[in-house]
Design brief:
The chain is elongated. The chain is built from 35 helices and 33 strands. The chain is an alpha/beta fold. It is 47% helix and 17% strand. The protein binds phosphoenolpyruvate and magnesium ion (MG). The site of phosphoenolpyruvate (PEP) has 10 residues, from β27 and α31.
């Protein structure tokens, strides 16, 4: 028989998966002999069974709950529903990972008319008894039945007004009695039946409600944002009530062993006298600082301090504790590793090592890699954010906070920048020509496009915040308006704020603050570097990106997307001349004018990387992306080429593709136009020769994209080798270079042995590999993937987090096949997954040499790589 219910005496901290965080820690504190009210935990497995059995708690589980209830009655000497000595309990959720405020809680359960009446007599405190009763009725109505809280709150406000009471605590015992009776009437009015008087029924209903709350909307959103699988389920804790609302020698509070904002090693928290837990959170009265408890209740304060340090030493981490004081006696209701800002997380981790409490490896595991983002980008000021209204939610495409006036074209953004305005670029989706506007804007918002859309990739590269795929908003680019679901209309020049870390869009100006990078950051990151096995490279297309990435610790460039170097006005014009040329001579002439720019860019990249490896990927995007759009542009180009407007227009139309992502791009371009590969080779090799002469050793790595058949690679490689060897020979020097390929087409992964005979290195392009393995268009998948999440078909975006079972298997196979032919070949990944911690862990596990990610994700990848290595050593 499966055991579904555990008393606090039976559990411990290692049983988090089964008992949830709260349950496991209550059990652990019980084991440590700390003052914890007795109780039991209904397991996460019971929650999963509830969902398996069509949202019904089975009789077997109900029997086990009642068995533990009897045991609780014996331990406490009280009885459920008893008039003389009633047992009252709290019912609280508690998942494996803490999800603060996401699920439901019911307090004071077990009260009914009779019990409340006698409770008033036995406690000799009628006010307290009916205060507890009215709270219970309201919570039960809200949590179990889903009735609006406001019906009860309005009534309470009305009674307070009638009685001239400012706070709840100003109400007399008779007033509270009246409130409780009236609450029951309200309940009956809504429910059409009396408030349930049977405590056991109340209990099962409340446990059911907590299980149900695992699937409420906010819990689902929180899980998705924090990578918590819905299969984990929540546990439910049933615990004897202790009361902070019995009078002035009672109270309740929350405290952290260290300051969660700054990490300062000092007790931090607040409490309220004569109150129950939710009052602290609800902000009905302003809580007192924990330090003042020393004067009010010195004994309790001393004991609490002792317990705080016992807990911190025991858990070896900053603790977040909830406590209640009943008639001068302290009870602990919860402890958990406290949530903290990134700055605090680093300080606490480093301090704990310096205090000799934990090892460096333990410290490295305490910081969530994604949290480091907070240190690298501007953030919203906390107070301003709390009062701001969310108008929409899109994909959290590139982290950081941005605020400014909205403009609907890149040009308008650049003009506004000249006027020193802060701006947000709003586009249906961005295209390469928006690049300047994207760089000038404080943030980017797109209505379409996923995590690997142009906007997302470019924004991350630039470290600009971006919310993409925000289908909640409607855009009219002609009228320059943005309309919310509630029909609120924002016009050009109106302020909005976007949070690229959460995907939220706010309809107002919110203040931002610059990140603080403290000394703790570099100490901590140096520990990560000591431990990690994977090298961390960066995806950088400009010398500026490369320098930023070096500052963040990048050990080379894993991907330079050369097409990003063609978008500047002069270059794109020459490039357009090149693709629309009708003769090879015309084409070569156009390429010659691009060559010096490319060469200069490569030289600067090599210099910025100071001898670290640089992988240069040859031109990849479909040609139509470079074509002119407006009649004016077409006119200008046709004049320069000496052809008619109409024939140029025809040529442009002929280049349009039904499915550009599967079209004329990657190595396919060099097969049609070998002169592009030749020109790029010349630029790379001549740049490397020049920089080598300056004393920086450069071994350029040339990467051919989108190869599916080794014959494609053989063809392009022959052009590269011819050109490169010729130039090196002419220069009369010795210089090595490497030619490798991206593995981003499933056929390339399957035939990796063949390809490895020709390629000196592989870099897995997991953006395209995901697109082509699933058959999901990179540009359109976000339109339907939301339905996948809602229907629980997918938990995660496969473009953000590697699909280990499918795409991952292809990578693993290709890596093995590649190494079987070329044992020392360098293997890396350069898709967007390279900066995502669980994907980094996967890359570490399958033995890749490096991951490459956008500059601002380099520190995240460094920490994720260190954590992956520590965990893999632990598993061994
Ligand atoms: C990829 O496909 O993963 C990749 C890195 O190339 P791009 O995103 O430029 O197609
Ligand atoms: Mg690709």
């Amino acid at each position: 028989m499966t055991k579904y219910v555990y008393s606090f005496k039976e559990g411990n901290r290692d049983m988090k998966n089964l008992l949830g965080g709260k349950g496991a820690n209550l059990a652990e504190m019980t084991g440590l002999g700390l003052p914890v009210p007795s109780g039991f935990t209904v397991t996460t497995e019971a929650c999963n069974k509830y969902y398996e059995e069509n949202e019904k708690i089975s009789n077997e589980i109900i029997e086990q709950i009642f068995e533990q209830l009897t045991y609780l009655e014996i331990t406490t000497g009280k009885k459920f529903g008893d008039i003389n000595n009633p047992l009252l309990v709290s019912v609280r959720s508690g998942a494996r990972a803490s999800m603060p405020g996401m699920m439901d809680t019911v307090l004071n359960l077990g009260l009914n008319d009779e019990v409340a009446e006698s409770f008033a007599k036995t406690t000799n405190n009628k006010r307290f008894a009916y205060d507890s009763y009215r709270r219970f009725i309201q919570m039960y109505a809200d949590v179990v039945k889903g009735y609006p809280k406001s019906s009860f709150e309005r009534l309470l406000d009305k009674i307070k007004e009638e009685k001239g009471a400012k706070y709840d605590t100003d109400l007399t015992e008779e007033d509270m009695y009246e409130v409780a009776l009236k609450f029951k009437e309200v309940y009956k009015g809504i429910a059409g039946e009396d408030f349930p008087e049977e405590p056991k029924k109340q209990l099962i209903e409340a446990i059911t409600a907590v299980f149900r709350s695992w699937n409420n909307e906010r819990a689902n959103i929180y899980r998705k944002m924090n990578d918590i699988p819905s299969s984990w389920g929540t546990a439910v804790n049933v615990q004897e009530m202790v009361y902070g609302n019995r009078g002035n020698n009672c109270g309740t509070g929350v405290a952290f062993t260290r300051n969660p904002s700054t990490g300062e090693n000092k007790l931090y928290g607040e409490y309220l006298i004569n109150a129950q837990g939710e009052d602290v959170v609800a902000g009905i009265r302003t809580p007192e600082l924990i330090s003042t408890l020393e004067e009010v209740m010195p004994e309790v304060f001393k004991q609490f301090n002792e317990i705080a340090s016992i807990l911190e030493n025991h858990y070896k981490d900053m603790q977040d504790m909830e406590f209640t004081i009943e008639n001068g006696k302290l009870f602990m209701l919860q402890t958990r590793n406290g949530k903290r800002t990134a700055a605090a997380a680093l300080k606490i981790a480093v301090d704990l090592v310096n205090e000799g409490k934990i090892t460096k490896e333990e410290a490295l595991l305490k910081v969530e890699p994604r949290q480091l983002d907070q240190l690298l980008h501007p953030n919203f000021e906390k107070e301003s954010l709390e009062n701001a209204k969310i108008i929409a939610k899109g994909l959290a495409a590139s982290p950081g906070a941005g605020c400014g006036k909205i403009y609907f074209s890149a040009e308008d953004i650049s003009l506004a920048k000249e006027r020193n305005e802060k701006t947000i670029l709003v586009r249906l989706e961005t295209s390469p020509e928006d690049i300047q506007g994207m760089s000038d804007a404080n943030g980017i918002l797109t209505i379409r496009g996923g995590m690997t859309s142009h906007a997302a990739v470019v924004a991350r590269g630039m470290g600009r915040c971006c919310v993409s795929g925000c289908g909640d908003l409607k855009i009219n680019e002609e009228l320059k308006t943005l309309t919310t679901k509630e029909n609120q209309v924002f016009k050009e020049g109106d302020y909005i704020s976007i949070d690229g870390t959460t995907g939220y869009v706010y309809g107002e100006e919110i203040k931002t603050v610059e990140p603080e990078i403290t000394g703790y950051f570099s100490t901590f990151m140096s520990w990560a570097d000591e431990v990690k096995r994977l090298k961390i490279r960066t995806n950088a297309d400009t010398p500026k990106d490369a320098k930023t990435a070096r500052k963040f610790g990048a050990e080379g460039i894993g991907l330079c997307r050369t097409e990003h170097m063609f978008f500047e006005e002069k270059r794109i014009f020459a490039f357009r001349q090149m693709i629309t040329s009708e003769t090879i001579l015309q084409r070569e002439k156009a390429l010659q004018s691009i060559l010096p720019y490319q060469k200069q860019d490569f030289e600067e990249l090599f210099r910025a990387m100071e001898g670290y490896p640089v992988v240069i990927r040859y031109l990849d995007p479909p040609l139509h992306e470079f074509l002119p759009h407006t009649d004016e542009e077409i006119e200008e180009l046709s004049a320069s080429l000496n052809i008619s407007f109409d024939s140029l227009k025809n040529r442009i139309d002929s280049l349009k593709e039904f499915n550009p992502m599967m079209g004329h791009r990657g190595c396919r371009l060099s097969i049609t136009y070998p002169e592009i590969a030749a020109m790029q080779t010349r630029a790379v090799i001549e740049a490397a020769i020049n920089v080598n002469k300056e004393g920086i050793k450069v071994t350029p790595e040339i990467m051919i994209p989108l190869v599916g058949d080794v014959k494609e690679l053989i063809y392009v490689k022959s052009i590269v080798v011819n050109e490169a060897d010729r130039i090196i020979k002419e220069a009369n020097i010795e210089m090595e270079y490497k030619i490798g390929t991206m593995i981003e087409v499933p056929r390339a992964a399957i035939t990796a042995e063949e390809i490895a005979k020709e390629a000196e290195f592989f870099s897995f392009g997991t953006n395209d590999l995901t697109q082509m393995t699933y058959g999901f268009s990179r540009d359109d998948a976000s339109k339907f993937l939301n339905d996948y999440y809602d229907k629980k078909i997918f938990e995660n975006d496969p473009f953000a987090k590697i699909d280990v079972t499918g795409v991952g298997e292809l990578i693993k196979m290709a890596a093995q096949k590649g190494r079987s032919v070329r044992p020392n070949m360098s293997l890396g990944i350069c898709g967007e997954h390279g900066g995502e911690p669980s994907s980094v862990e996967f890359c570490n596990m399958i033995g890749l040499d490096y991951v490459s990610c956008s500059p601002y994700r380099v520190p995240i990848a460094r920490l994720a790589a260190a954590q992956a290595q520590i965990r893999s050593m632990e598993n061994k």
